[in-house]
Amino acid sequence: MKEERIFGELFNNPNIIDEKELVSVAETDSQFIEENDGDMVFINVLDPLFSIGGIVHPNKNNGEYYRLDATKKEIYSSANSSLAHCTAGAQVRFCTDADSVKIKIKLRFALTGMNHFTNRGVYGIDAYIGTGNNRHYVGAQMQTFADSSSYNEGVLNLPKGINEVLINLPLYGGVSKLVVGFPVNSKTVKPLNRTIEKPIAFYGSSITQGGCVSRPGNMYSNILCRALDADCMNLGFSGSAMGEQSIAEYIGSRKISAFVMDYDYNSPTADSLMETHSAFFKTVRKAHPEIPVIMVTHPYYAAVTEGDIKRKNIIIATYEAALADGDRNVYFVDSEDFFPLEMRDLYAVDNLHPNDLGQFMMAKAIYPFLRKTL
User: Fold this and answer.
1) Cβ 200 vs Cβ 255: under 8 Å
2) Could you tell me if 211 and 64 lie in one domain?
3) Final residue before a domain boundary, out of 163, 189, 215
4) Helix or strand (DSSP H, E) at 355
5) For a 10 Å CB count at each end of the chain, is N or C smaller?
6) In the sheet where 232-236 sits, what is the strand order?
7) 115 within a domain of the structure (yes/no)
């Protein structure tokens, strides 16, 4: 029986890596080689042979793995400025004929002591191989410590042949350096371009940042971008998505293909949400008049409260005002429909943050709107 797929038919990138394009790792630019011990060559992923997606390349952003403009930190709230070091949505891709690679990551910091969140979900990484949306999970690296002075490292075994490898970076940890070790006789090359050229942007709370999945690839924005083969520009800010104009203007400054506007819950009151929601949308829409914008309310796991209804009505008002202004590429997703009513607690870790299953259901609900507009 043919499987009925939730996220569309599988497809590979129609382009094929020419073996003649492969470069010996021993012959790569020496400025990016961190170590050559005779058996392994360790290359910093800042080397142009790697693709860094979801964030502005560190070489163009003050040398930092940073989700906002690292040269203008003073314009953001202190919480957003700090949380922008968390690399949610950031990915590294490369192609190689190696049968295994060693991944070494040095964390800038990690948020620890989160009793509702696994360490692997907080500051771990995971990896996939494949192209297009036909990528297969090949393992998660469990960091054994979260200090900022030592490398965490692990070996990733690969199938025979040329593989494109994708590494999802930590959701609630920051990266200061990432190095990949290749067997000295292996080769590598820059990966293929994405099917969707520009990243999909997401803005919201701790839920948007990935709380509380077991590993990075299970965050709903990463699921969606995996299904569509796009880079993921994740601007989830735990506890601090207040609809600030500085964030709206940053989104406006980036080249993006779509925008999922998932902020609501962090606004302290419905009145504060009313003051910012429409204004935030208008700033992004002015900068990106043609892209699809999908407005989402926060997930519900219990009876909907009067406050929930007020917040939802504010978001609906922004949506309906856009329609009245002639906007035909704006959409509304009611998160009350994310989860079945039966045993709804199965989708969350604490009746607030969705677990892996909950984030999957969020991606499932949002996917049709992105699929038909991209």
Assistant:
1) no
2) no
3) 189
4) none
5) N
6) 232-236, 200-204, 258-262, 293-296, 330-333
7) yes
CB 229 within 8 A of CB 199: no
Same domain, yes or no, for 279 and 146? no
Same domain, 226 and 167: no
Instruction: With respect to residue 10, please indicate whether it lies within any of the assigned structural domains.
Output: no
Give the count of domains, the chain: 2
Asked whether residue 7 is domain-assigned, the answer is no
Written as tens digits, the pLDDT of the chain (374 aa) is 567 899 999 999 988 888 888 999 999 889 999 999 999 999 999 999 999 999 999 999 999 999 999 999 999 999 999 999 999 999 999 999 999 999 999 988 777 778 788 888 898 999 999 999 999 999 876 555 555 556 778 889 999 999 999 999 999 999 999 999 999 999 999 999 999 999 999 999 999 999 999 999 999 999 999 999 999 999 999 999 999 999 999 999 999 999 999 999 899 999 999 999 999 999 999 999 999 999 999 998 888 889 899 999 999 999 999 999 999 999 999 998 899 989 999 999 998 899 999 999 999 999 999 999 99
DSSP structure class, residue 354: B
Domain limits at 124? 19-189
Quote the CA–CA distance of 192 and 15 in Å, as a whole number: 7
Biggest alpha carbon–alpha carbon distance for the chain: 66
Whether the full predicted model's pTM is greater than 0.90, yes or no, is: yes
180 and 251 in a single domain? The answer is no
Q: How far apart are the first and last CA of the chain?
A: 29
User: How far is Cα 170 from Cα 22, in angstroms, rounded to an integer?
Assistant: 29
Q: Is residue 12 part of a domain?
A: no
Q: Residue 300 belongs to a domain with what CATH number?
A: 3.40.50.1110
Rounded CA-CA distance 247/250 in Å is 5
Q: What is the DSSP string of 241-299?
A: ----HHHHHHHHHS--SEEEEE--TTSSSHHHHHHHHHHHHHHHHHH-SSS-EEEEPPP
What CATH number does residue 102 fall under? Answer: 2.60.120.260
